[in-house]
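Hi C.,

You asked whether I'd gotten around to modeling the 206-residue construct. I have! Everything is below, sequence then structure, no commentary in between.
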Amino acid sequence: MYAIVENNEITKLISYPKSIVIGDVRYPAKIFQVWSKSEKEAIGIYEIVFDDSNKKDEKWYINTNQSFDFDGNEVTATYGTATPKAHADTTWSQDDEDAGDLPDDKSVGDVKVEGLKTQLIRTIKQQASGLLAPTDWYVVKASEVSDYSVPTNIATYRASVRTKSNEMETLITNASDTPALETLYTYTTTDGVQSRPLGELPQEVI
């Protein structure tokens, strides 16, 4: 990505090489490939240097738009301070109702915007349900056939999935803020083994 700089001001951003007019001269797109860095800069074309030091994982944060600055013969693109996404639900308030903003199908106290905790817990429940689904038929058969019992290893596995799911949901619920949620999902490696504080749901029947 490039920027056109005129009189020490960025006047245009260029996402991809293309024919451009600078002053009274039209330059072909190929100059972006064949001209040297100094040759392009001599007519005001600067390759943008991206500084992503403030950019954060968009799963957890809302990043600002990039700002572009020309200084010291260099054009840089930087992010401002990222804002953590809300970890808790926001709800419809009495003020919303008084202002006429409360939808007809909602009441004061109902969820207005889901926070990360609600979304993450829903995902855990869906994952646990998906793991249990292949062995559901054992439970159905046991409820319909009087002399049939769910095999011990199946029952143990299903219980372990539910137990771990509940533990994970509790960890998410108890997280104090968005950075704490992010930490739960951050993998680290110890002795060649990757793990995260949240842990993992059991994947196979033993």
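If it helps when you're writing up: The chain has a mean pLDDT of 95.

Thanks,
B.
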